[in-house]
TrEMBL record:
Residues 86-216 form the GST C-terminal domain. It comes from Bradyrhizobium jicamae. Coiled coil: none annotated. Residues 1-81 form the GST N-terminal domain. GO terms for molecular function: glutathione transferase activity; maleylacetoacetate isomerase activity. InterPro entries: Glutathione-S-Trfase_C-like, Glutathione-S-Trfase_C_sf, Glutathione_S-Trfase, Glutathione_S-Trfase_N, GST_C, Thioredoxin-like_sf. Pfam families: GST_C_3, GST_N_3. This is Glutathione S-transferase. The lineage of its organism: Bacteria, Pseudomonadati, Pseudomonadota, Alphaproteobacteria, Hyphomicrobiales. One of its GO terms (biological process) is glutathione metabolic process.
Amino acid sequence: MLTIHGVPLSVHTRKAIVTAILKKVDYRFEVVIPVIPGNPPANWSTLSPTGLIPVLQDGDFTLADSTAICLYLDRKQPAPPIFPEDIRDYGRVLWFDAYAGGTIFRHVVHPLFVQTIVGPNIRNVPTDRAVIDDVLTNVQPKILGYLESQIAGKYLVGDTMTLADIAIVSNFIVYQYLGFEIDASRYPKLAGYLREIAATAVFQRALADERPFVDQMGLKRGFLSAA
């Protein structure tokens, strides 16, 4: 059985978990809580050369990085695929996965998470409201507007769930956990898309498994009632 190491709230950990659930790959989840305050387990540098989560262990094989893990799982259990056969659609899935990690997470989700959770609750540093305001006012609109323009159906690419959906929606789950909302009047397609994907069985199982951790941190789950 596979082991996935990470934190339930993590965008990247959830990406690996949802992929495993979608493919019906048996796995156990190992919570690596010490990673958050920067006090990892003694063997963490061996498991994760970067010190980041998630990490997958499959027997004596260890792999870090969420995208690498998802690609590995896709080869280990090909059905259902998380990449389409069409070469252009394949490229678009890779692009959205990169956009999720390199743009949405880096420039929106991560700074908001640091200012609302990590700073005040872990590092004892007051929230810098100016950072939050800058993200919401100057950074976020371009990203949300772009995503709104890319949605033409239930899924971002093709007619089945792909890594593009898993990566994008995993980010916005955390975004909404923090109490931020997508303005449905301004971004109706994006709001509907996120709601529908979050309501799928694979996401619902992952979100149910992480609920104790979310409740413990006092995060918002009201948005899921509409999913």
